[in-house]
Request: fold
Amino acid sequence: MNHLSTWSLLVLTLPTENATARMRFYRALKAKGCAVLRDGVYLLPYSEAREEALHELAGAIAESGGTAHLMRAPSLDASQEEAFRASFDREGDYDAFIGSLAEARKTISGQSAAELTRLLRRLRKDYEGIQAIDYFPDDAAPRAAVAWQDFVALVDTVLSPGEPHPSERTIRLLSREDYQGRTWATRQRLWVDRVASAWLIRRFIDPNARFLWLPSPDACPADAFGFDFDGAAFTHVGERVTFEVLIASFGLDTDPALLRLGEIVHALDVGGPAAPETVGFEAVMAGTRRRVDNDDQLLEQMSPVLDALHTHFAANANEESGGRS
Reply:
């Protein structure tokens, strides 16, 4: 091994009288992915951000009555480098996670949409937590990635049967005048991307749009504009979900509030960084989906929610713009 890493070492003694503080510090060290060299000596591969986090932790330990010394040093030789790296092996964590996916698979068929979204959110948090402290990925990381992708795909087939695959094509700028009073069609049992796209169509593209909720994409009439299924006129393109494709197609990407809504839809549909409002919107969507009997009602009840979020984001954007002027 030619490259020798630099390491941050935290040498500490925890307060003996405060069991609650000791447990809090142990959990913080574990959450940061620290390796234990021996009792009271913790190790992390150096980065400015990780060392700053350890510095803050050292200060908290000292304030609680313990002692903490933070140091930085390189590996002495290849043998020590290998030993230090081995102490960060995450294979056991990934194997346990893959096992939890196997157990979760057994429960999917009996769960509601709200329960499935909570399950998916919890498991995604677990997975991303392991990834965040996997400083030296090996063969276990791609195994877990494949298992996670398979699990997400399985949940998608329950939540959104017929979920589209991303296509690679150019998004052309279209004129809204050519899309007035038309019939639009998508898969029935609306979920986030489809309900947000239908709202966007009626609110910003075709106010007199008529919607068809299809039992199967094959049932889409030839004269209808399909959205959010493979082969539809508007569907996933590259990393963009259907809602984002519609925004780009009709030149709506100058509206910062729509772009913020797009972040929420994207995160809930395919994952990724989530705005603070994402969890709340997901809960409202899941609850409404359980309460109503059909997709017309679902769109009717979710439209005011999307209107309110759009107004909220627009007001924030105006305030931020005013603050810069």
About this structure: The chain has a mean pLDDT of 91. Strands lie at 6-13, 35-38, 41-45, 67-74, 183-187, 210-214, 225-226.
